[in-house]
Amino acid sequence: xxxxxxxxxxxxxxxxxxxxxxxxxxxxxxxxxxxxxxxxxxxxxxxxxxxxxxxxxxxxxxxxxxxxxxxxxxxxxxxxxxxxxxxxxxxxxxxxxxxxxxxxxxxxxxxxxxxxxxxxxxxxxxxxxxxxxxxxxxxxxxxxxxxxxxxxxxxxxxxxxxxxxxxxxxxxxxxxxxxxxxxxxxxxxxxxxxxxxxxxxxxxxxxxxxxxxxxxxxxxxxxxxxxxxxxxxxxxxxxxxxxxxxxxxxxxxxxxxxxx
Length: 260
Known about the structure:
Blueprint: H1 11-21, H2 30-37, E1 47-51, H3 57-64, E2 70-75, H4 78-90, E3 97-101, E4 114-120, H5 129-139, E5 140-150, H6 161-170, H7 179-189, E6 192-198, H8 200-216, H9 218-225, H10 227-246, E7 252-257
C-alpha cells in the first residue's frame, strides 16, 4: 500500500529533520505527539505495526517507553530502513523490533497479525486511503486499534494555488485526503469508534516557530547544511506556514477499532 519517492530521505535530509524535530524523528512533535496519538490505547504487551517507520526512533519509543512486546517497522526507502536497523542494533533491541523494507502493495502480513497498527505522518504517501484502511483492518486482530497521525487537506477539491505550490516545493508524492474521506474509508473498512482530531491549531504555532528558527539562525543552519539546502527548506516552510494558517493544511489524529 505504501509509495515513496525513492531515496528522497537521504542522509543529509534525515540529519536535518532530526535536528528540527528530534533525533530519529521525521515529522514534528516528537515523543509528546506520539503519546497523544496512542493515548489510552493498550500498547504495553502488544504487537505493533509501525507503517512508515522512518529512521526508527518511534519504533524504539514504542518498545522502550510504551512497553510494546514486539514492534515491526516498515518503510519503502532503503536509507531510512538502514538508519532504523542501525538504531535498533546499536541499542541491542533486535529481539523486540524488526525493521522491514517493503514494496508498495498489500501489507506483507497474515490476517489478524497485530494488536495495533500505528503510523505517524507517513500515510500521506498512500493515495488509496480506502485500501489503506482495509489493509490495516485486515492485519489487525479482533479488538485491535488503528492509530495514526497524518497530513490532511480540508476538502476533496483541487488544492488551492497556495497549497499546490507548497506540495510542489516539497517534491514528495503527497496524496492528501480530507477528514471526511478518511472517516468514510475507516467506516467502510469496518472500523468502529472512529475518531478524528484536528491538530491544525497546534501545528500553526509549531511550524511558525520552526520557520522563525530557520530564518533567525540561518548562518548556523547554513554552516551545517549549505546555502542551497537551507534556502530550499526556508522556501518550503514559508509555503507550509501559509497553508497551515489558512486551515487548508490540517494535520489530524485518526483512530478506529476493529470489532471483537
